[in-house]
Amino acid sequence: MHERVPPGGGAGRFATKAHRWVLVLLALASLSGCRTPYAADRNCVSTQLVTRTGLELGPPSCPGQFALPNGSSLQDGLSEDEAVVIALWNNALFNELLADLNVARGDLVQAGLLPNPEVVYFVPVNDKPFKYALDFPLESLWLRPIRVRAAARESSRVSQRLTQSGLDLIRDARQGFADALLAQGRLEVARQSAAMRGEILRVAEARLQAGDISVQETVTARIDMLRARQELSRAGFDVALAEERLRNLLGVGDDRSPLRLIAAPLPPLLRLHADTLVAEATSTRPDVMSANQNVAAAAERVRLSRVGWVRFLGILDATSGTRTGHEFGPALRMTLPIFNWNEGLIIRAEAELERARRQRQTVHNQVVMEVYQAHARVEQARAELDVLDRQVLVEAERSRTRAEGAFREGDTAYIIVLETIRQVLDSRLRQQQLHADLRRAWADLERSVGRRLTAEPLPPPAAPLPPPQTP
Prior knowledge:
Elements: H1 7-31, H2 42-53, H3 80-90, H4 92-98, H5 100-112, E1 118-122, E2 131-137, H6 139-209, H7 215-250, H8 274-284, H9 286-307, E3 312-319, E4 327-334, H10 343-409, H11 414-449
Antiparallel strand pairs: 1-2, 2-3, 3-4
Helix pairs in contact: 2-6, 3-6, 5-6, 6-7, 6-9, 6-11, 8-10, 9-10, 10-11
Protein backbone atom coordinates (compact mmCIF):
# COMPACT_ATOMS: atom_id res chain seq x y z
CA MET A 1 0.00 0.00 0.00
CA HIS A 2 1.07 3.51 -0.75
CA GLU A 3 1.76 5.70 2.14
CA ARG A 4 -0.38 8.84 2.17
CA VAL A 5 1.52 12.06 2.08
CA PRO A 6 0.66 14.56 4.76
CA PRO A 7 -1.54 17.42 3.56
CA GLY A 8 1.28 19.91 3.86
CA GLY A 9 3.64 17.82 1.75
CA GLY A 10 1.03 17.34 -1.00
CA ALA A 11 0.34 21.02 -1.12
CA GLY A 12 4.06 21.70 -1.48
CA ARG A 13 4.41 19.30 -4.38
CA PHE A 14 1.32 20.80 -6.02
CA ALA A 15 2.76 24.28 -5.63
CA THR A 16 5.99 23.16 -7.26
CA LYS A 17 4.20 21.60 -10.22
CA ALA A 18 1.87 24.57 -10.60
CA HIS A 19 4.84 26.90 -10.55
CA ARG A 20 6.45 24.94 -13.37
CA TRP A 21 3.32 25.13 -15.50
CA VAL A 22 2.99 28.85 -14.86
CA LEU A 23 6.57 29.29 -16.05
CA VAL A 24 5.74 27.34 -19.19
CA LEU A 25 2.76 29.61 -19.89
CA LEU A 26 4.87 32.74 -19.33
CA ALA A 27 7.50 31.43 -21.74
CA LEU A 28 4.84 30.79 -24.37
CA ALA A 29 3.45 34.26 -23.80
CA SER A 30 6.87 35.80 -24.33
CA LEU A 31 7.19 33.93 -27.64
CA SER A 32 3.72 34.86 -28.83
CA GLY A 33 4.83 38.18 -30.31
CA CYS A 34 6.81 41.31 -29.69
CA ARG A 35 5.64 44.00 -27.41
CA THR A 36 2.73 46.18 -28.53
CA PRO A 37 3.83 48.68 -31.23
CA TYR A 38 3.93 52.38 -30.51
CA ALA A 39 0.50 53.99 -30.80
CA ALA A 40 0.13 57.24 -32.72
CA ASP A 41 -0.64 60.20 -30.47
CA ARG A 42 -1.10 63.96 -30.65
CA ASN A 43 2.64 64.54 -30.98
CA CYS A 44 2.72 62.25 -34.01
CA VAL A 45 0.05 64.30 -35.79
CA SER A 46 1.79 67.53 -34.79
CA THR A 47 5.11 66.29 -36.16
CA GLN A 48 3.54 65.40 -39.49
CA LEU A 49 1.91 68.83 -39.75
CA VAL A 50 5.23 70.54 -38.96
CA THR A 51 6.94 68.54 -41.69
CA ARG A 52 4.29 69.47 -44.22
CA THR A 53 3.36 73.03 -43.28
CA GLY A 54 5.73 74.26 -40.58
CA LEU A 55 2.78 74.59 -38.17
CA GLU A 56 2.24 72.49 -35.05
CA LEU A 57 -0.57 71.63 -32.70
CA GLY A 58 -0.89 73.31 -29.35
CA PRO A 59 -1.15 71.66 -25.94
CA PRO A 60 -4.42 69.92 -25.07
CA SER A 61 -7.02 72.23 -23.56
CA CYS A 62 -10.23 71.73 -21.65
CA PRO A 63 -13.52 71.96 -23.56
CA GLY A 64 -14.82 75.51 -23.66
CA GLN A 65 -11.39 77.08 -23.17
CA PHE A 66 -9.11 78.54 -25.80
CA ALA A 67 -5.45 79.45 -25.73
CA LEU A 68 -3.47 81.82 -27.92
CA PRO A 69 0.05 80.92 -29.07
CA ASN A 70 2.89 82.95 -27.62
CA GLY A 71 3.05 86.35 -29.27
CA SER A 72 -0.46 86.15 -30.78
CA SER A 73 -3.21 88.59 -29.91
CA LEU A 74 -6.54 89.52 -31.41
CA GLN A 75 -6.13 93.17 -30.46
CA ASP A 76 -2.81 94.08 -32.11
CA GLY A 77 -3.59 92.72 -35.56
CA LEU A 78 -4.04 89.20 -36.86
CA SER A 79 -2.00 87.80 -39.74
CA GLU A 80 -3.01 84.79 -41.82
CA ASP A 81 -0.39 82.50 -40.28
CA GLU A 82 -1.42 83.54 -36.76
CA ALA A 83 -5.04 82.77 -37.63
CA VAL A 84 -4.08 79.30 -38.86
CA VAL A 85 -2.11 78.48 -35.70
CA ILE A 86 -4.95 79.70 -33.49
CA ALA A 87 -7.35 77.45 -35.44
CA LEU A 88 -5.06 74.42 -34.98
CA TRP A 89 -4.94 75.11 -31.25
CA ASN A 90 -8.60 75.88 -30.61
CA ASN A 91 -10.94 74.66 -33.34
CA ALA A 92 -13.59 72.63 -31.51
CA LEU A 93 -14.34 70.15 -34.29
CA PHE A 94 -10.65 69.37 -34.87
CA ASN A 95 -10.06 68.82 -31.16
CA GLU A 96 -13.07 66.52 -31.15
CA LEU A 97 -11.53 64.47 -33.97
CA LEU A 98 -8.20 64.27 -32.13
CA ALA A 99 -9.95 62.21 -29.44
CA ASP A 100 -9.96 59.34 -31.98
CA LEU A 101 -6.22 58.97 -31.31
CA ASN A 102 -6.88 57.74 -27.78
CA VAL A 103 -9.63 55.45 -29.06
CA ALA A 104 -7.18 53.85 -31.52
CA ARG A 105 -4.51 53.70 -28.81
CA GLY A 106 -6.91 51.89 -26.49
CA ASP A 107 -7.76 49.39 -29.23
CA LEU A 108 -4.06 48.76 -29.85
CA VAL A 109 -3.31 48.21 -26.16
CA GLN A 110 -6.32 45.90 -25.84
CA ALA A 111 -5.21 43.89 -28.87
CA GLY A 112 -1.88 43.21 -27.18
CA LEU A 113 -3.33 41.97 -23.89
CA LEU A 114 -3.54 38.26 -23.14
CA PRO A 115 -6.67 36.89 -21.48
CA ASN A 116 -6.54 36.10 -17.79
CA PRO A 117 -6.37 32.46 -16.71
CA GLU A 118 -9.51 31.09 -15.11
CA VAL A 119 -9.78 28.96 -11.99
CA VAL A 120 -12.65 26.60 -11.13
CA TYR A 121 -13.08 24.93 -7.75
CA PHE A 122 -15.54 22.18 -6.91
CA VAL A 123 -16.57 22.06 -3.27
CA PRO A 124 -16.18 18.54 -1.83
CA VAL A 125 -19.27 16.75 -0.56
CA ASN A 126 -19.90 13.26 0.84
CA ASP A 127 -18.43 10.55 -1.38
CA LYS A 128 -17.11 13.19 -3.82
CA PRO A 129 -13.58 14.60 -3.52
CA PHE A 130 -12.72 18.23 -4.07
CA LYS A 131 -11.40 19.35 -7.42
CA TYR A 132 -9.99 22.52 -8.90
CA ALA A 133 -8.50 23.45 -12.27
CA LEU A 134 -6.62 26.28 -13.94
CA ASP A 135 -7.25 26.89 -17.66
CA PHE A 136 -5.76 29.29 -20.20
CA PRO A 137 -6.73 29.83 -23.90
CA LEU A 138 -3.54 28.87 -25.69
CA GLU A 139 -4.85 30.09 -29.06
CA SER A 140 -4.54 33.67 -27.80
CA LEU A 141 -0.74 33.28 -27.95
CA TRP A 142 -1.04 32.53 -31.66
CA LEU A 143 -3.73 35.08 -32.52
CA ARG A 144 -2.24 37.97 -30.56
CA PRO A 145 0.31 39.05 -33.24
CA ILE A 146 -2.41 39.17 -35.89
CA ARG A 147 -4.66 41.30 -33.69
CA VAL A 148 -1.79 43.62 -32.83
CA ARG A 149 -0.85 44.11 -36.49
CA ALA A 150 -4.43 44.95 -37.42
CA ALA A 151 -4.77 47.41 -34.52
CA ALA A 152 -1.39 49.00 -35.33
CA ARG A 153 -2.48 49.55 -38.93
CA GLU A 154 -5.69 51.10 -37.68
CA SER A 155 -3.79 53.39 -35.32
CA SER A 156 -1.59 54.56 -38.18
CA ARG A 157 -4.65 55.07 -40.36
CA VAL A 158 -6.27 57.28 -37.72
CA SER A 159 -3.06 59.31 -37.41
CA GLN A 160 -2.90 59.92 -41.16
CA ARG A 161 -6.61 60.73 -41.30
CA LEU A 162 -6.26 63.33 -38.56
CA THR A 163 -3.22 64.80 -40.29
CA GLN A 164 -5.41 65.26 -43.35
CA SER A 165 -8.07 66.83 -41.13
CA GLY A 166 -5.41 69.25 -39.92
CA LEU A 167 -4.58 70.15 -43.53
CA ASP A 168 -8.28 70.65 -44.21
CA LEU A 169 -8.55 72.98 -41.21
CA ILE A 170 -5.52 74.97 -42.39
CA ARG A 171 -7.17 75.35 -45.79
CA ASP A 172 -10.48 76.38 -44.24
CA ALA A 173 -8.81 78.93 -41.95
CA ARG A 174 -6.89 80.48 -44.84
CA GLN A 175 -10.00 80.65 -46.97
CA GLY A 176 -12.02 82.10 -44.09
CA PHE A 177 -9.31 84.71 -43.61
CA ALA A 178 -9.47 85.51 -47.36
CA ASP A 179 -13.26 85.84 -47.19
CA ALA A 180 -12.98 88.27 -44.29
CA LEU A 181 -10.40 90.31 -46.20
CA LEU A 182 -12.71 90.30 -49.22
CA ALA A 183 -15.60 91.59 -47.13
CA GLN A 184 -13.41 94.37 -45.76
CA GLY A 185 -12.22 95.18 -49.29
CA ARG A 186 -15.78 95.40 -50.53
CA LEU A 187 -16.59 97.71 -47.64
CA GLU A 188 -13.73 100.00 -48.64
CA VAL A 189 -14.90 100.05 -52.27
CA ALA A 190 -18.42 100.82 -51.05
CA ARG A 191 -17.04 103.78 -49.08
CA GLN A 192 -15.23 105.03 -52.17
CA SER A 193 -18.40 104.60 -54.20
CA ALA A 194 -20.45 106.61 -51.71
CA ALA A 195 -17.79 109.34 -51.60
CA MET A 196 -17.55 109.64 -55.39
CA ARG A 197 -21.29 109.67 -55.85
CA GLY A 198 -21.57 112.31 -53.12
CA GLU A 199 -19.05 114.47 -54.97
CA ILE A 200 -20.98 114.02 -58.24
CA LEU A 201 -24.19 115.05 -56.45
CA ARG A 202 -22.49 118.18 -55.16
CA VAL A 203 -21.37 119.10 -58.68
CA ALA A 204 -24.83 118.36 -60.07
CA GLU A 205 -26.52 120.60 -57.52
CA ALA A 206 -24.05 123.41 -58.33
CA ARG A 207 -24.79 123.09 -62.04
CA LEU A 208 -28.53 123.02 -61.31
CA GLN A 209 -28.26 126.34 -59.48
CA ALA A 210 -26.33 127.71 -62.45
CA GLY A 211 -29.09 126.52 -64.79
CA ASP A 212 -26.84 124.14 -66.76
CA ILE A 213 -28.81 120.91 -66.09
CA SER A 214 -32.37 119.94 -65.33
CA VAL A 215 -33.90 118.92 -62.01
CA GLN A 216 -34.31 115.36 -63.30
CA GLU A 217 -30.55 114.93 -63.75
CA THR A 218 -30.01 116.16 -60.19
CA VAL A 219 -32.62 113.71 -58.86
CA THR A 220 -30.91 110.88 -60.70
CA ALA A 221 -27.59 111.78 -59.07
CA ARG A 222 -29.26 111.91 -55.64
CA ILE A 223 -30.89 108.51 -56.09
CA ASP A 224 -27.56 107.09 -57.21
CA MET A 225 -25.90 108.50 -54.09
CA LEU A 226 -28.59 107.00 -51.83
CA ARG A 227 -28.13 103.59 -53.45
CA ALA A 228 -24.41 103.85 -52.77
CA ARG A 229 -25.17 104.45 -49.10
CA GLN A 230 -27.44 101.40 -49.12
CA GLU A 231 -24.60 99.27 -50.56
CA LEU A 232 -22.27 100.69 -47.91
CA SER A 233 -24.66 99.60 -45.15
CA ARG A 234 -24.93 96.10 -46.64
CA ALA A 235 -21.15 95.79 -46.99
CA GLY A 236 -20.75 96.64 -43.31
CA PHE A 237 -22.97 93.73 -42.28
CA ASP A 238 -21.17 91.41 -44.72
CA VAL A 239 -17.94 92.16 -42.85
CA ALA A 240 -19.57 91.17 -39.55
CA LEU A 241 -20.84 87.90 -41.04
CA ALA A 242 -17.47 86.98 -42.55
CA GLU A 243 -15.63 87.76 -39.31
CA GLU A 244 -18.09 85.63 -37.36
CA ARG A 245 -17.39 82.66 -39.62
CA LEU A 246 -13.66 83.25 -39.13
CA ARG A 247 -14.08 83.40 -35.34
CA ASN A 248 -15.83 80.03 -35.44
CA LEU A 249 -12.99 78.48 -37.45
CA LEU A 250 -10.46 79.88 -35.00
CA GLY A 251 -12.45 78.61 -32.02
CA VAL A 252 -12.54 82.05 -30.37
CA GLY A 253 -16.23 82.84 -30.77
CA ASP A 254 -16.55 83.80 -27.09
CA ASP A 255 -13.85 86.46 -27.44
CA ARG A 256 -15.52 89.55 -28.89
CA SER A 257 -12.34 91.56 -29.39
CA PRO A 258 -12.31 93.42 -32.71
CA LEU A 259 -10.49 91.58 -35.49
CA ARG A 260 -7.82 93.65 -37.21
CA LEU A 261 -6.77 91.54 -40.15
CA ILE A 262 -3.33 92.06 -41.66
CA ALA A 263 -3.36 91.21 -45.35
CA ALA A 264 -0.38 89.14 -46.46
CA PRO A 265 1.13 89.47 -49.93
CA LEU A 266 -0.48 87.44 -52.67
CA PRO A 267 0.83 83.87 -53.11
CA PRO A 268 4.24 83.68 -54.80
CA LEU A 269 4.44 83.23 -58.53
CA LEU A 270 5.79 79.69 -58.86
CA ARG A 271 5.93 77.67 -62.04
CA LEU A 272 4.09 74.60 -60.84
CA HIS A 273 3.43 71.69 -63.13
CA ALA A 274 0.15 69.98 -62.39
CA ASP A 275 1.41 66.51 -63.37
CA THR A 276 4.32 66.75 -60.90
CA LEU A 277 2.01 67.89 -58.12
CA VAL A 278 -0.43 65.05 -58.85
CA ALA A 279 2.36 62.47 -58.73
CA GLU A 280 3.50 63.81 -55.36
CA ALA A 281 0.01 64.05 -53.89
CA THR A 282 -1.00 60.51 -54.90
CA SER A 283 1.98 59.06 -53.04
CA THR A 284 2.44 61.31 -49.99
CA ARG A 285 -0.90 62.90 -49.10
CA PRO A 286 -2.13 61.76 -45.68
CA ASP A 287 -5.53 60.52 -46.82
CA VAL A 288 -3.82 58.39 -49.51
CA MET A 289 -1.53 56.86 -46.88
CA SER A 290 -4.54 56.41 -44.60
CA ALA A 291 -6.34 54.49 -47.35
CA ASN A 292 -3.28 52.24 -47.77
CA GLN A 293 -3.23 51.51 -44.05
CA ASN A 294 -6.95 50.78 -44.16
CA VAL A 295 -6.37 48.13 -46.84
CA ALA A 296 -3.53 46.56 -44.84
CA ALA A 297 -5.64 46.50 -41.66
CA ALA A 298 -8.54 44.90 -43.55
CA ALA A 299 -6.18 42.21 -44.89
CA GLU A 300 -5.07 41.41 -41.33
CA ARG A 301 -8.70 41.15 -40.26
CA VAL A 302 -9.29 38.64 -43.06
CA ARG A 303 -6.46 36.51 -41.69
CA LEU A 304 -7.89 36.77 -38.20
CA SER A 305 -11.38 35.79 -39.32
CA ARG A 306 -10.07 32.63 -40.98
CA VAL A 307 -8.49 31.37 -37.76
CA GLY A 308 -10.71 33.11 -35.24
CA TRP A 309 -12.84 30.02 -34.70
CA VAL A 310 -9.92 28.12 -33.14
CA ARG A 311 -10.31 27.38 -29.43
CA PHE A 312 -7.41 25.55 -27.77
CA LEU A 313 -7.60 25.51 -23.99
CA GLY A 314 -4.74 24.41 -21.77
CA ILE A 315 -5.92 23.00 -18.43
CA LEU A 316 -4.07 22.24 -15.18
CA ASP A 317 -6.33 19.93 -13.20
CA ALA A 318 -5.95 18.96 -9.56
CA THR A 319 -8.07 16.64 -7.42
CA SER A 320 -7.71 14.57 -4.28
CA GLY A 321 -6.16 11.19 -4.85
CA THR A 322 -4.69 8.18 -3.17
CA ARG A 323 -1.02 8.71 -3.92
CA THR A 324 -0.79 12.34 -2.81
CA GLY A 325 -3.10 14.86 -1.30
CA HIS A 326 -3.47 16.47 -4.74
CA GLU A 327 -3.30 14.45 -7.93
CA PHE A 328 -2.24 17.04 -10.49
CA GLY A 329 -2.12 16.68 -14.28
CA PRO A 330 -2.43 18.65 -17.52
CA ALA A 331 -5.30 18.50 -20.00
CA LEU A 332 -6.32 20.05 -23.31
CA ARG A 333 -9.66 21.12 -24.70
CA MET A 334 -10.16 22.21 -28.28
CA THR A 335 -12.89 23.09 -30.74
CA LEU A 336 -13.80 20.61 -33.48
CA PRO A 337 -14.68 22.57 -36.66
CA ILE A 338 -17.65 20.44 -37.65
CA PHE A 339 -20.49 22.96 -37.92
CA ASN A 340 -18.89 26.38 -37.73
CA TRP A 341 -15.84 27.49 -39.73
CA ASN A 342 -16.57 31.18 -39.17
CA GLU A 343 -17.89 31.47 -42.73
CA GLY A 344 -20.06 34.52 -42.04
CA LEU A 345 -17.28 36.60 -40.49
CA ILE A 346 -14.86 35.53 -43.24
CA ILE A 347 -17.29 36.77 -45.89
CA ARG A 348 -17.75 40.01 -44.00
CA ALA A 349 -14.00 40.54 -43.58
CA GLU A 350 -13.39 39.85 -47.29
CA ALA A 351 -16.14 42.32 -48.18
CA GLU A 352 -14.54 44.95 -45.93
CA LEU A 353 -11.20 44.32 -47.66
CA GLU A 354 -12.84 44.77 -51.06
CA ARG A 355 -14.49 47.97 -49.86
CA ALA A 356 -11.16 49.26 -48.51
CA ARG A 357 -9.49 48.63 -51.86
CA ARG A 358 -12.23 50.45 -53.71
CA GLN A 359 -12.10 53.30 -51.20
CA ARG A 360 -8.38 53.57 -51.90
CA GLN A 361 -9.10 53.93 -55.60
CA THR A 362 -11.80 56.48 -54.84
CA VAL A 363 -9.36 58.51 -52.76
CA HIS A 364 -6.80 58.31 -55.56
CA ASN A 365 -9.28 59.62 -58.11
CA GLN A 366 -10.39 62.36 -55.72
CA VAL A 367 -6.81 63.49 -55.16
CA VAL A 368 -6.11 63.66 -58.90
CA MET A 369 -9.24 65.72 -59.51
CA GLU A 370 -8.60 68.09 -56.57
CA VAL A 371 -5.01 68.85 -57.58
CA TYR A 372 -5.86 69.52 -61.22
CA GLN A 373 -8.85 71.66 -60.31
CA ALA A 374 -6.98 73.70 -57.68
CA HIS A 375 -4.06 74.21 -60.07
CA ALA A 376 -6.46 75.39 -62.79
CA ARG A 377 -8.15 77.82 -60.39
CA VAL A 378 -4.79 79.32 -59.39
CA GLU A 379 -3.81 79.80 -63.04
CA GLN A 380 -7.25 81.21 -63.86
CA ALA A 381 -7.14 83.76 -61.03
CA ARG A 382 -3.59 84.82 -61.92
CA ALA A 383 -4.40 85.26 -65.62
CA GLU A 384 -7.59 87.20 -64.97
CA LEU A 385 -5.95 89.38 -62.34
CA ASP A 386 -3.08 90.19 -64.67
CA VAL A 387 -5.47 91.44 -67.38
CA LEU A 388 -7.52 93.39 -64.85
CA ASP A 389 -4.53 95.15 -63.24
CA ARG A 390 -2.60 95.92 -66.42
CA GLN A 391 -5.43 96.84 -68.77
CA VAL A 392 -9.00 97.03 -67.49
CA LEU A 393 -8.48 99.00 -64.30
CA VAL A 394 -6.02 101.43 -65.86
CA GLU A 395 -8.34 102.22 -68.77
CA ALA A 396 -11.39 102.51 -66.51
CA GLU A 397 -9.62 105.05 -64.26
CA ARG A 398 -8.61 107.12 -67.28
CA SER A 399 -12.14 107.07 -68.64
CA ARG A 400 -13.59 108.15 -65.29
CA THR A 401 -11.16 111.03 -64.98
CA ARG A 402 -12.00 112.29 -68.49
CA ALA A 403 -15.76 111.95 -67.92
CA GLU A 404 -15.71 113.81 -64.57
CA GLY A 405 -13.69 116.64 -66.06
CA ALA A 406 -16.07 116.93 -68.99
CA PHE A 407 -19.09 116.89 -66.66
CA ARG A 408 -17.66 119.78 -64.62
CA GLU A 409 -17.16 121.73 -67.83
CA GLY A 410 -20.67 120.91 -69.00
CA ASP A 411 -19.48 118.98 -72.02
CA THR A 412 -21.11 115.62 -71.21
CA ALA A 413 -24.24 114.21 -69.60
CA TYR A 414 -24.39 112.76 -66.10
CA ILE A 415 -25.26 109.34 -67.48
CA ILE A 416 -21.79 109.11 -69.03
CA VAL A 417 -20.14 109.98 -65.73
CA LEU A 418 -22.30 107.45 -63.93
CA GLU A 419 -21.32 104.72 -66.37
CA THR A 420 -17.59 105.39 -66.03
CA ILE A 421 -17.87 105.39 -62.22
CA ARG A 422 -19.70 102.09 -62.37
CA GLN A 423 -16.95 100.61 -64.54
CA VAL A 424 -14.25 101.74 -62.11
CA LEU A 425 -16.08 100.43 -59.05
CA ASP A 426 -16.92 97.15 -60.75
CA SER A 427 -13.26 96.74 -61.66
CA ARG A 428 -12.14 97.43 -58.10
CA LEU A 429 -14.68 95.00 -56.73
CA ARG A 430 -13.52 92.42 -59.24
CA GLN A 431 -9.94 93.05 -58.16
CA GLN A 432 -10.86 92.37 -54.53
CA GLN A 433 -12.72 89.24 -55.60
CA LEU A 434 -9.78 87.96 -57.64
CA HIS A 435 -7.39 88.56 -54.75
CA ALA A 436 -9.65 86.44 -52.57
CA ASP A 437 -10.05 83.83 -55.31
CA LEU A 438 -6.29 83.55 -55.70
CA ARG A 439 -5.76 83.17 -51.95
CA ARG A 440 -8.55 80.60 -51.71
CA ALA A 441 -7.28 78.64 -54.71
CA TRP A 442 -3.71 78.68 -53.39
CA ALA A 443 -4.85 77.42 -49.99
CA ASP A 444 -6.83 74.69 -51.72
CA LEU A 445 -3.84 73.74 -53.90
CA GLU A 446 -1.56 73.40 -50.87
CA ARG A 447 -4.17 71.26 -49.14
CA SER A 448 -4.64 69.16 -52.31
CA VAL A 449 -0.90 68.49 -52.57
CA GLY A 450 -0.55 67.99 -48.82
CA ARG A 451 2.18 70.51 -47.98
CA ARG A 452 3.20 74.16 -48.16
CA LEU A 453 4.30 74.76 -51.72
CA THR A 454 7.11 77.17 -50.89
CA ALA A 455 9.08 74.24 -49.47
CA GLU A 456 10.81 71.37 -51.21
CA PRO A 457 8.69 68.41 -52.33
CA LEU A 458 8.11 65.75 -49.72
CA PRO A 459 10.01 62.49 -50.21
CA PRO A 460 8.00 59.32 -50.78
CA PRO A 461 7.16 57.21 -47.70
CA ALA A 462 10.37 55.80 -46.22
CA ALA A 463 8.93 52.33 -45.59
CA PRO A 464 6.44 51.38 -48.30
CA LEU A 465 3.54 49.29 -47.12
CA PRO A 466 3.74 45.58 -47.90
CA PRO A 467 1.05 44.46 -50.33
CA PRO A 468 -2.00 43.12 -48.49
CA GLN A 469 -2.56 39.40 -48.71
CA THR A 470 -5.13 38.48 -51.28
CA PRO A 471 -7.81 36.25 -49.81
